[in-house]
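Input record, target 12 of the design panel.
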């Protein structure tokens, strides 16, 4: 089991993952279709009708979903790794057998397009922030991003399996510097994107201030778990 793998195979988690997959299929279909205006309007009406019952049962944003597992850094609606998120890939990050850090493989679809047929640069930055953040967590160095430097060496092609990797490069007090790359899976040594991020673990006082109102689904405070002295 790894940091991004959901905790249990509960029925609710299965359903959350199923809806997430359906949303992602909808987004991909909507950005890669030649359907007519009438067909698009029919799809929009169907999606609105299908999701109206969900909007009628809102979860406050400071109450974590029941399917999250903060102890294992599993956030089910995270926009990069969350199996329940419509915008997530979702990346399946694993320990990197090639020597420390974390790695994931994915083929990115048209919903992430920037230049025609290539990945949007902002999406590359988003993915790297998450991958490098998980590399820090894997080294027991949870922190918030205070800096993210992204170098775009070559465009990242869509629909081609790429390898996203990150590893801790330096530790200094509450600061953790993490480096990583996006590369074609069949040419992992040729970086298309290089990134360096600095994460800082908030002090316990700052964590208490930021996360004071945040509760798990069972009502427990989370702030004590995210501060580092
Ligand atoms: C457990 C839960 C897990 C769930 C997560 C799952 C997903 C995970 C993946 C997530 C991926 C996505 C992640 C996201 O999206 S995180 C969201 C984006 N990031 C933020 O919003 C962070 C905003 N920044 C802050 O709130 C504060 O700066 C924090 C709280 C981080 C530190 O405020 P605090 O008051 O506590 O600390 P301090 O100010 O005394 O500083 C402490 C030390 O740090 C050094 N420093 C500060 N800034 C910089 C800098 N720019 N470069 C280099 N160094 C810097 C500073 O000099 C000092 O060093 P020193 O003087 O002691 O030597």
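The sequence produced for target 12 reads:
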């Amino acid at each position: 089991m790894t940091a991004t793998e959901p905790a249990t195979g509960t029925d609710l988690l299965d359903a959350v993952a199923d809806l997430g997959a359906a949303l992602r299929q909808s987004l991909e279909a909507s950005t890669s279709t030649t359907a007519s205006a009438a067909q698009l309007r029919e799809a929009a009406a169907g999606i609105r009708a299908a999701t109206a019952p969900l909007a009628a049962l809102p979860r406050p944003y400071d109450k974590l979903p029941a399917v999250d597992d903060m102890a294992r850094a599993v956030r089910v609606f995270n926009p990069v790794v969350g199996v329940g998120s419509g915008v997530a890939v979702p990346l399946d990050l694993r320990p990197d057998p090639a020597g420390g850090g974390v790695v994931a493989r994915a083929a990115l679809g048209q919903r992430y397009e920037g230049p025609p047929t290539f990945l949007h640069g902002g999406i590359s930055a988003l993915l790297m922030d998450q991958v490098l953040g998980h590399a820090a967590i894997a080294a027991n160095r949870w922190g918030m991003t205070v800096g993210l430097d992204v170098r775009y060496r070559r465009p990242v092609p869509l629909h081609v399996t790429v390898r996203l990797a990150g590893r801790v490069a330096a530790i200094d007090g509450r600061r953790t510097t993490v480096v990583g790359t996006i590369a074609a899976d069949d040419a992992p040594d040729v970086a298309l994107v290089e990134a360096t991020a600095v994460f800082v673990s908030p002090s316990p006082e700052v964590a208490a201030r930021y996360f004071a109102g945040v509760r798990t689904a069972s009502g427990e405070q989370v702030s004590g778990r995210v501060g580092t002295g």
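The pocket of tetradecanoyl-COA is lined by residues 70, 73, 75, 78, 129-130, 133-134, 137, 142, 144-147, 173-175, 198, 200, 202-203, 206, 225-226 (CB under 6 Å).
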